[in-house]
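Here is one chain, start to finish.
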Amino acid sequence: MEMPTYWQLLQLILPIFAIIGAGVALRRIGWLNKEADESLLKIVVKFLYPCLILDSVLGNAALRVPANLFVPPMVAFATISVGMGLAWWVARTLGMQRGTGLRTFAFTTGIFNYAYIPIPLMAALYGRDSLGVLLVYNVGCEAAIWTVGILLLAGLSLRDGWRQLLNPPVWALLVGIGINEMGLAPRVPTFLLMSVSLCAKCAIPLGLILIGATLEEFIRENPMSLADPKVTPAACVLRMGVLPIAFLLLTRFLPVTPELKRVMIVQASMPAGILSIVIAKHYGGRAQTAAQVVVATNLLALVAIPLWLRLGLSWLGP
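Its structure:
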């Protein structure tokens, strides 16, 4: 595999941010009303994203390796949990207190975008096999968010957090892996595979449009509130500087499969996850602080993602 240039890597991520921008524009001109968000989000999360998982998992050769089934979720859980802990410590050092964004800053900065940006990147860089490992990896991300993250953000019990983890994407992953392990993937009817594949193609674009529509609300209400002299630089340094370095060091020395290393290279370059704004708002966090972290790190990501990918690929190999 020839090392892609910075410009080639930038071209891979520009369409992702362009679709987010389309979501902002669609909300601004009134074609995507706020009332439609909940229904569309349910369709994406509970139907289209599970279809994407099934399409990527069924018959995936990389997922026949046991290390690609059990290690990725553990690595994901650890990296997000440690990221939240480090962000909490930095926020306390900077003088943030509970009630003024401390918990929300730690929660949002610790969560990297593990789905909507890396999925098209993984597919473009490495193909279907490594994409399947990414989707297994994402189970650990979900587990960290709905247990450690929610405990940090709102004090929710572990029992309630684990209930959130039992969602349609996880069930789709379990079903897909089960079909693979039983050797039934070749027996799935072709028309069903084609239907799932067509629906899978809709998951990421529609999800990105909804993300843009959510961000537009903050842009419209008070654009100046999206920057903070304390939150913005701290989030950028941590999420797009310190944590990527730590991630790449872990990738270099952790004895894991090549497919998982590829996933970790991509995840190391990711900005804060945009869905954390919605979660923070729902669980009593400060949505404004979450938006400040998300907007700052995602704007910086336009420049930083190709740089981190180049470094990761050159240091760790394709």
